[in-house]
């Protein structure tokens, strides 16, 4: 973060002692900030967030596009189509996409749905009287098959029977209500996503970068360890950068239960998030209850956790590495 003169107060650090950091790096992570200066900076940051956060026109536009694509998909086969991700969570950036997933009881569609939806969208692309402009239709045969297209210059990603996305949405909404403070969690996600996307260029799973869900989990980890003791989203960003730039990525995975030694894998045995035994934001009961409540999304539970260059354990599915998309060359944190 560079020089901090004037922004920190010269007094002993708080009793907080995070776990999983590189040796002798805790002091910078837990330094006490000058509250008066930071509150002024938070006021300016609030003005910035107001410029990039969802607003009524952008929400209306995305709702209309989502409804349009939902109707097109429903013409292909009997199904229900839901939005998930940053649009219903209301944490999308101005350039944010729309995530849709179609559900059908007809399991035989899992092999044909993508071709049907792609054909429908390509026909709509040629339709001069279409309700919205559709272009750049792509079929991406990744781990999760996706149809990607542009509708009114908004990226739309379509998947099939992806219950996990809806479970994640419910979990993050539940966390936001728990933290409260005028949606501090969501406002912090917007600011940190903006920094990661526009400033550092480290957000984007399709490009070997960090996925949005991995980033949201890292932001939640900061709230969890510091127990929402923030003056505002700017301080969350500051703590985020200080903490994860000092985190020992070579030896630990990030988990809401605490840092997990990579040497212990495939056994997921977490160390305490804090060495000082201080109170955490999320209780073990809360985390276990969420894992149980959203167990419907926990496919492939028998598979072991596979470590990569950047390891973040899914709070709802502990064998799922949210950092698996990050290549070694793009690991900048």
Automatic annotation (TrEMBL):
Q: Which segments constitute the PAP/OAS1 substrate-binding-related domain?
A: 179-332
Pfam entry (one): PAP-OAS1
Give every Poly(A) RNA polymerase mitochondrial-like central palm domain span: 46-166
Q: Which InterPro entries match?
A: MTPAP-like_central (IPR054708), NT_sf (IPR043519), PAP-OAS1-bd-rel (IPR058920), PAP/OAS1-rel (IPR058921)
Q: Which residues form a coiled coil?
A: none
Q: What protein name is recorded for this chain?
A: Poly (A) RNA polymerase cid14
